[in-house]
């Protein structure tokens, strides 16, 4: 179900005798099940019901609900009868069955004496005469209708009345039908007969004619009379006009409803809704047409004039306006034309003598009242944007072409000495194009431009920017009756100026209020705001309340084309965007015509009731009353909110809130009236719906309960049973756990005893480790001290040599070579020293976290061999790796690698044209790794020094400068892995280094 729009046939929109209307058409393309509308009625809840030949239809102003799967042999229905005020509306169904509309829903019921629509008397079948809609073309049919005291029986040429109490009969020998149309109709309790021969309307009481009336419209043979007793309405169709006929104070009152361009010959049912001023026309072939009336009147320019685009207008008399072309309009259209030569439609004003000021290009024209506005006085080179005067002087807001070469205008506020445009008293300049200005008080003016709003001091010319942090294109400045100043803008909404601060008003739902042109205030303190998309009405009190509390909701009531406009777009951009006339009417310029209306006569339509009785649960429709019972497995729930409302749907505000949902807030309901719920938890939930019912912001509330029973496992008894079982299991679990812990405790005591012994052993090991660490620290301190001492000499020597070189101006080549050679040797010694020192630091750092691993000694030696092969080959030396390939060791790889690296480095450095042989031997856990070279050999003093140092490395002074740091580092590293080195000079040539290592895993 959805909002249906005008779509088919009968779409007219015209002005006839100042009465405007809009027609919406519905057929099978947009909501109806069938195109023949037999009868129309409104129930006590406000819903419109239609009978068709394919079901019965309920209409709420936005959507149709079709009932065509009723338990009947066919779904063809004809006329309504019964008592809507008693919530008992009937229509004919199958033979012996009747359809009853009660509580907004149709129900099939058996025909009783109270709702019979067919009786037989004297072998003649009489059909209930509740309306003449269905019988207008039925020849030879006999009719009956009951009254308070008796029954009328209508035959072709007679009317018989039978009294209920006395059973007395009265016969009227008159022709009861005219062209197969019954001449009888009833208004309230009065029965009338149309006598075409005498041109009279005869009133009948208890079967006798008691009076007659002369009503030409009723007796005109060209008139069609449509009558419905259940609606108590009589309509007269004559030519293109439709009239409503009432009988009051013993006389007929016939009023014209509308004159249409064309009335279909197929109209068979009529209903007029007085509340919403809507006329419903049912066709036998074209569906339903709804004629909506409006109090707005749109006046267009005559066909001989250009398009009906209006901008600036001024009140002219008490009921008309004049535009910049000199055309005078009232509700009936163009009434006078003064043929102004002005061609600028954006400016018009009166001066103090009611002369009209207009513009032609950049010239000012003054149309004089005393000359009937036919003669003009001009003022050159004045682009007047806005103008007003007080008792002393003129105030003008003018545009100036920018002098800096840029495109656009700047502004100047001109204050003249007197009530003329002759002598200027004061000028105030603005950088941007002017739009509107207004006097704030005796000392200040408010001035608007395309960039902002300013407050101008009349004494000092000081300009105060009232919107310094944002850019606003000011459209209008209005002062309401209570003294408040309201500012409308182009695209940024409208504002209240309070304490030199602009307070923005909230937007409407569609943000149309963002482009507000002006504000007209009526005598009830309602603001009427024309925009680029509709006319809005709002009470000023709501806006002021919003200023105090931003949580306050502001409800804008929208009028659109269906209200009687030619277009939704009203025009701004001129100095006058709307007028108040002396007769109380407002006039607004639009893109297609001038809109006249009296604001006090325009009614705001709001709904009167809310009905929540339908839901679709998992794609199955269900009806309920106040309580919606759901199954726990229900997944998708669509609740439908039915609100009969027959005006602009933009003004229908429906909101809903469901309890049991975190942070439940009022949610807007769309036009389909559906509220969807998914996976609602079990329990008793409250579903509350509200709808706006007045301009004061009052709401009508409706509440239902939604009950979802829990699954068995969600019920209290199940939870208690489950809790008992869990407690029982917990009891046995605790008992078992206690027994387990006692057993475990005994086992832990044995483990603690064992661990205590292990801990004692560990403490002993830690003591040993502590001693070793102490030795290492002492050795490091000693090493650092020695380094500090020994590094001083080469550094000092380099410094002295460099100083000597600087002090002498000239040197011989031999002296230069000597000095440079000295610096080179000292620097090279220092470099090698620091490199070795860095290696030592790296090895020591890594040793702290070194994890013992098993690796191949052969591969380690092979890696070092590859590293030094290039240097060895350069010295014509061969490195031979004779280490056992199957030998795997646990010795710290980092430390052993550094030891071998230093020893190989020495051998390669001092061996030329020789061999370096590396061999291994295993003696139990002892591994002997021997490196022999055929180099120049180590000096005996060095061998003696290193041998002695190895035995007393903690106490012996390290001669780093004399012997370098390489073998000192080797000795340190060997101490870390509990190894020894034997240095021996070979008998023939070179030196042997025998490493004695312990192969064990370091835990």
From TrEMBL:
<keyword id="KW-0812">Transmembrane</keyword>
<keyword id="KW-0067">ATP-binding</keyword>
<dbReference type="InterPro" id="IPR036890">
    <property type="entry name" value="HATPase_C_sf"/>
</dbReference>
<dbReference type="InterPro" id="IPR015943">
    <property type="entry name" value="WD40/YVTN_repeat-like_dom_sf"/>
</dbReference>
<dbReference type="InterPro" id="IPR003661">
    <property type="entry name" value="HisK_dim/P_dom"/>
</dbReference>
<feature type="domain" description="Histidine kinase">
    <location>
        <begin position="786"/>
        <end position="1001"/>
    </location>
</feature>
<protein>
    <recommendedName>
        <fullName>histidine kinase</fullName>
        <ecNumber>2.7.13.3</ecNumber>
    </recommendedName>
</protein>
<dbReference type="GO" id="GO:0000155">
    <property type="term" value="F:phosphorelay sensor kinase activity"/>
</dbReference>
<dbReference type="InterPro" id="IPR005467">
    <property type="entry name" value="His_kinase_dom"/>
</dbReference>
<keyword id="KW-0472">Membrane</keyword>
<feature type="transmembrane region" description="Helical">
    <location>
        <begin position="716"/>
        <end position="734"/>
    </location>
</feature>
<dbReference type="Pfam" id="PF02518">
    <property type="entry name" value="HATPase_c"/>
</dbReference>
<keyword id="KW-0597">Phosphoprotein</keyword>
<keyword id="KW-1133">Transmembrane helix</keyword>
<dbReference type="InterPro" id="IPR003594">
    <property type="entry name" value="HATPase_dom"/>
</dbReference>
<dbReference type="Pfam" id="PF07494">
    <property type="entry name" value="Reg_prop"/>
</dbReference>
<dbReference type="GO" id="GO:0005524">
    <property type="term" value="F:ATP binding"/>
</dbReference>
<dbReference type="InterPro" id="IPR013783">
    <property type="entry name" value="Ig-like_fold"/>
</dbReference>
<keyword id="KW-0547">Nucleotide-binding</keyword>
<dbReference type="InterPro" id="IPR011110">
    <property type="entry name" value="Reg_prop"/>
</dbReference>
